[in-house]
Amino acid sequence: VNHANFAALVLTPSAHFRRKLLHYGVKKTIKVVPPGFSDTRFLPNLPVKKVGPEGLKIIWHSRVSAEKRIVPFFKALCQVKGKYHLDVYGNGGDYWRAKRFASRHQLNVTFHGNVQFDQLVKAINQAHLDVLVSFNADTFGMTLIEAEAYGVPVFFCDPDMKEIVPAGGFMMSQDQSPVAMAAALQDLIDHPEKITKMSEVMLKHRREVLISQRIIPLEKIFQAAKKNS
C-alpha cells in the first residue's frame, strides 16, 4: 500500500485485487489491466473437449504449495468415485508431501515436476479440466486463462476467480472444503456432458485473453499518462 501510494498510477491485474488495494488504503488511481496469453502459442480450430471412456482428465499447473492448497484438493479426490486422472505439473514446498499423500491413498495422479512451457501447453490442450483451488490468495489466476486459450473448462473454489473466465466456462465448488470440492468434481464425473458445454463457452471467448487484445487498454493508459506527465 505504501509503495502504491507513491506511484502516479497503479495497475492491477484484476478487479477483486483492486478492491483489496482500496480497502487497505491505496489512494491513487488504480486501473485494471489483466495479463494475456501469448498469440504465438494460440492454436486455431480446436475441437470441443469431450470426456471419453478413459474418464475425466484433470491438470494442475500451479505451484505445488500450501497456498495453492494441493493437499486439500487431494483430500477431495479421495472422496471421488469414477474414472479420472490428474497430471500435476510444477514444483513447490508441498511437492513431496503431495506425492506421499497421493501414494498413501492410491490416487490416480502423475507428477511431472517442472517442464518446458511448450510441453505444458500441450498437456493443457489434452486435458478436460484445469484446476486452481487456492482461496483468497491469487491476485489473478494466470493458469485459468492458459486453460481458456485452449478451450479447457476450469474448476475453482474462490468466488474472486469468477471474473477471470467467462460465465458458463467454469465449475465452482460451494466452498473451499475438500467435501465441497469432491461434490463438484463428482458432479462432473457423473455428468461429462457439462465438460462439453463449458468447453464450448471457453472456445467462444478464448481470443479475448490474447496479449494482442489485452494490450489495447494498456496502450491507451500509457498514452494518457504521457499526455498528463
Task: Write a compact overview of the structure shown.
The chain has 8 helices and 8 strands.
Descriptive report:
There is one protein chain. The chain is of the alpha/beta class and 229 residues long. The protein is 38% helix and 14% strand. The chain has eight helices and eight strands; from the N terminus they run E-H-E-E-H-E-H-E-H-E-H-E-E-H-H-H. It has helices spanning 15-23, 70-77, 95-104, 117-126, 142-148, 178-190, 193-205, 211-228, and strands at 10-12, 30-32, 56-60, 84-89, 109-113, 129-132, 154-156, 170-172. A six-stranded parallel sheet has the order 5-4-3-6-7-8, with helices on both faces. A two-stranded parallel sheet has the order 1-2. Helix 2 (70-77) packs across helix 6 (178-190). The longest helix is centred in the last third of the chain and has 18 residues, at 211-228. The two termini are 23 Å apart.
User: Given the structure, what is the number of helices?
Assistant: 8
Structural class: alpha/beta
H and E string: EHEEHEHEHEHEEHHH
Largest sheet, spatial ordering of strands: 5-4-3-6-7-8
Tell me about the largest β-sheet: 6 strands, parallel
Sum up the overall morphology in one term: globular
Average pLDDT level: 95
User: Low-confidence runs (pLDDT<50, min 5 residues)?
Assistant: none
Give the terminus-to-terminus CA distance.
23 Å
Strand content: 5-15%
Would you count the extended β strands for me? 8
Q: Tell me the helix content.
A: 25-40%
